Structure formats: structure tokens, C-alpha cells
Inverse folding.
């Protein structure tokens, strides 16, 4: 953690804000562990009392050598500040994994620095490669021991011992690239969705075309270079991402 030379004003403002800050709403569920957690949007909503006490939040991210570095700084109107950074390794080298790592880092840092309870358990496996659980031992079939009985007649010459069947566990499912569902959205609806995505990008302060489609690519998990290349579902995801960025700027 890094700080300004003095902390008196920001410490008091942060303490006053934390009196008003409540736990973030657990509005998502970790599919791997079944635990509930608060999304970035929920954490930002819970952190709004910071602004009322003169504390602004700024977050940045950069990718270097396959790792994502996310930084968060709390800046008080007095000029005092507190900053913290976290480095994450995405599960895969693709836009979706990088975007997940950035979102997780922003959520984690803001919640910890503002004192917000944001989850029941860690959901970092959405951003980084989780530790694989130890494999369960295969179940072996046991044969019952026969009870003592009178001597039986000799078996027929061609008789064979009963076969023992082993149970083979099914292989773990492999991650597959998402398949786009057939889009039945009308032309007019698609035009409205494209306009909503462009308006959301502008509202988030993103006017550069490259940056705009970079955010859209991270949101949908594949490279996007034109609005016309996107399905209705992808346009909605991109719009949600732009709105999340816009909400962060307003905190």
C-alpha cells in the first residue's frame, strides 16, 4: 500500500463514510464453488458514501508479460490519498479472461479498501486459474464372500469364473468456445441495440474506436471490429460493460 505523507483528513473522511457504508448486495453466484458474491456494480453502489465525504475513486489496469496489474487509489479533496495494487494471471490469454481478471481486481481492491463485505468466499477462479481439486478415488466393486456350504458338485469343464465389472468415471468436461445461438432479432431491434451500445460507450467517455471495440471484445470474449459483427446478445453484454464503466466514473 502507498499513501500520501499525511493521512489525517482522508482517515477521518473514510471513517465517516464507513459509518454509512453497508455490505454490498450479493447479486451473483460462483458457478465453481456455489458461493454468493457481489458484482463490481454492486460494490460500487455500496461505495457511494465515499463521494459524499470527499473521497474519489480511480482505478487503472494494464497487461504486462501475461499478467494483469490493477490499481485503485482513494483521493481526498484535501489532496491526501491511499493506493493499492494487485497482480493477477488470467486463466487464458484471451480478451474474456483478461476482462474477468480486471473486473475481479477492481472489485476486490475497492471492497477491501472501503471496508465493504462483498462475498461469502473467494471467487477469484473467475479471473485466475483455480487450484484443481484432488481427484476422487475410483470406487472398487467388492464381491460378497460366499457362506459356508456343503461341497458342491464339480463344475462343468467349460465353466468360467464370474466377471468383475469396474465403474469408469466420465471424463471432466472440457472448456469449449461459446457457440452463438441463432439470432431471431429483427432488423429494427438490432439497429436499436447497436445505437444503445454506441450511446453507452459515449456516456462512458469512450470515443476512440479501437478502445471502444477493445471493451466490447473483452465483454463478449472474442475479437470485435464492427457493430455489424455482433449478435443481439453480444450487443447487450457490451452495453452492460459500458454502463458499468460509466457508473464507476460517477462514483
Amino acid at each position: 500500500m502507498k499513501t500520501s505523507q499525511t493521512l489525517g483528513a482522508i482517515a477521518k473522511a473514510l471513517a465517516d463514510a464507513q459509518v454509512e457504508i453497508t455490505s454490498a448486495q450479493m447479486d451473483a453466484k460462483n458457478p465453481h464453488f456455489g458461493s454468493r458474491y457481489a458484482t463490481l456494480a454492486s460494490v460500487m453502489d455500496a461505495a457511494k458514501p465515499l463521494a459524499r465525504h470527499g473521497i474519489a475513486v480511480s482505478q487503472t489496469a494494464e497487461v504486462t508479460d501475461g499478467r494483469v496489474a490493477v490499481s485503485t487509489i482513494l483521493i481526498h479533496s484535501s489532496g491526501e490519498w491511499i493506493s493499492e495494487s494487485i497482480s493477477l494471471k488470467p486463466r487464458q490469454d484471451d480478451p474474456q479472461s483478461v476482462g474477468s481478471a480486471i473486473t475481479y481486481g477492481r472489485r476486490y481492491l475497492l471492497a477491501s479498501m472501503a471496508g465493504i463485505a462483498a462475498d461469502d468466499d473467494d471467487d477469484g477462479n473467475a479471473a485466475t486459474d483455480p487450484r484443481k481439486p484432488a481427484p476422487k478415488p475410483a470406487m472398487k466393486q467388492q464381491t460378497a464372500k460366499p457362506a459356508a456350504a456343503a461341497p458342491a458338485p464339480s463344475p462343468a469343464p467349460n465353466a468360467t469364473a464370474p466377471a468383475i465389472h469396474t465403474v469408469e468415471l466420465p471424463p471432466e468436461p472440457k472448456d469449449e468456445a461459446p457457440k452463438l445461438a441463432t439470432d431471431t432479432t429483427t432488423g429494427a431491434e438490432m439497429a436499436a441495440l447497436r445505437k444503445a451500445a454506441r450511446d453507452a460507450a459515449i456516456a462512458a467517455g469512450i470515443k476512440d474506436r479501437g478502445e471502444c471495440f477493445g471493451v466490447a471484445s473483452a465483454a463478449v470474449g472474442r475479437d470485435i471490429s464492427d457493430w455489424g459483427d455482433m449478435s443481439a446478445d453480444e450487443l447487450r453484454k457490451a452495453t452492460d460493460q459500458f454502463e458499468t464503466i460509466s457508473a464507476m466514473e460517477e462514483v
In short: Confidence is low (pLDDT under 50) at residues 121-126, 159-170, 172-182. The chain has two domains: 2-130, 187-241.
